[in-house]
Specification:
Shape: elongated
Strand order of the largest sheet: 3-4-5-6
Strand content: 25-35%
Oligomer: single chain
Number of strands: 12
Radius of gyration: 25 Å
Length: about 180
């Protein structure tokens, strides 16, 4: 940090010029998310510790050196949800369901394979899977009770329990037939 002493004898802090790595990170994230991004790196160790801010979300940045230059990547899988709610709204409209979707903050961290849950105005949910290429798969649970069941984490035990219940229902239907 640089300081100058002004005429009154008080130090004046000068803004620090960003490091090229910070500029590169901010520029790339600004382009990726079409929104202004800032980056900050602390060079207190052999490898700098960096973070970035974009769409009101703090991102941890992993930094490495290939021997010639710094390389970096966002730590985690973040999904830009800004286009997902309108997409779900269009699906609802195609099905003549008069509800709208709210998908939460514009940038969300999801584990690989984790679904994004968007709330529907009628109490249900839209569960959105996003593959590595960015393709969406949407499951609509338009009422609250269905959404509650579909929001449960699917463990192996739970899958077996649901399979047994489903088979029991099939056998009940077979018994009712003449």
């Amino acid at each position: 940090m640089c300081s100058l002493v002004a005429c009154g004898g008080q130090p004046v802090d000068l803004p620090q010029k960003p490091w090229p790595l910070e500029t590169a990170i901010a520029r790339e994230l600004t382009g990726r998310f079409a929104s202004p991004a800032t980056a900050r790196c602390d060079f207190f160790a052999i490898v700098p510790a960096c973070s970035a801010q974009v769409l009101d979300t703090q991102l941890a940045i992993r930094v490495a050196s290939d021997g010639h230059a710094w390389t970096w990547e966002v730590d985690g899988h973040f999904v830009d949800t800004r286009a997902i709610a309108p997409y779900v709204d269009s699906l609802l409209g195609d099905l003549h369901i008069k509800q709208t979707a709210q998908c939460g903050p514009p940038l969300q961290k999801l584990a690989r394979g984790e679904r994004l849950a968007c709330t529907l105005s009628g109490g249900g949910s839209a569960f959105v899977e996003i593959d590595d290429a960015g393709a969406l798969r949407v499951e609509l649970a338009v009422d609250h009770e269905t959404a509650k069941v579909r929001a449960e984490p699917m463990t192996e035990e739970r899958a077996k329990e649901l399979e047994q219940k489903s088979r029991a229902l099939e056998h009940t239907s077979d018994d009712d037939e003449p």
